[in-house]
Amino acid sequence: MKKILNIILGILLAIMAVLGIYAIATGGSDASISANLIWCYILLVLAIVSAIFCAVFGMVQSPSGIKGTLLSSALIVVVVAIAYFVAASHHIEIPDFASGGVFARTPTVIADCGILVTYVAMIAAVVVALYSEVAKLFK
Questions:
Q1: Residues 53, 108 within the same domain
Q2: 30-55 per-position pLDDT tens digit
Q3: Which residues constitute the domain of residue 19?
Q4: What is the domain count for the chain?
Q5: If you ran DSSP here, which 8-state letter would residue 29 be given?
Q6: 3-state SS string over 7-56?
Q7: 101-102 and 95-96 as β-strands: parallel, antiparallel, unpaired?
């Protein structure tokens, strides 16, 4: 299984390298940016699908972990909902230089929500890393 995962990782890395070289070689052309964005969307979908699959697979193998999985899922939903409501409460206008106006409200709220969720995830990652290291010191 580990060998298969290493092969898949190598293939994904090779695709990323080819797309990066393509973007650099073309000077950031629209086609290269579109290809890289599509690749990012594919990777995002793969990450979401694998996270859901691993969670369900872990619950099937160890039913005692269902409580933790459901609690984690509920926490994620709460964080996203709070971030959305905070983003929706702001009135932000992002200039659209191509059309000379501003972007519509819905994409702006979604982008702001994504940024807020990213901040929360980064802070949580740092807190968990620090906590685990400090906990190791006292063991």
A1: no
A2: 888 888 888 888 888 888 888 888 87
A3: 1-61
A4: 2
A5: -
A6: HHHHHHHHHHHHHHHHHHHCCCCHHHHHHHHHHHHHHHHHHHHHHHHHHH
A7: antiparallel
Q: What mean pLDDT is predicted for residues 56-65? A: 78
- Do residues 24 and 41 both lie within one domain? yes
Last-in-domain residue among 61, 81, 111: 61
Which parts of the chain are beta strand (E)?
95-96, 101-102
Q: What is the pLDDT of the chain when averaged over all its residues?
A: 86
d(CA 107, CA 88): 11
How confident is the model at residue 107, as a pLDDT?
83
State the amino acid at position 67 in one-letter form. Answer: K
Same domain? For 126 and 71 the reply is yes
At residue 86, the pLDDT reads 93
89 and 115 co-located in one domain: yes
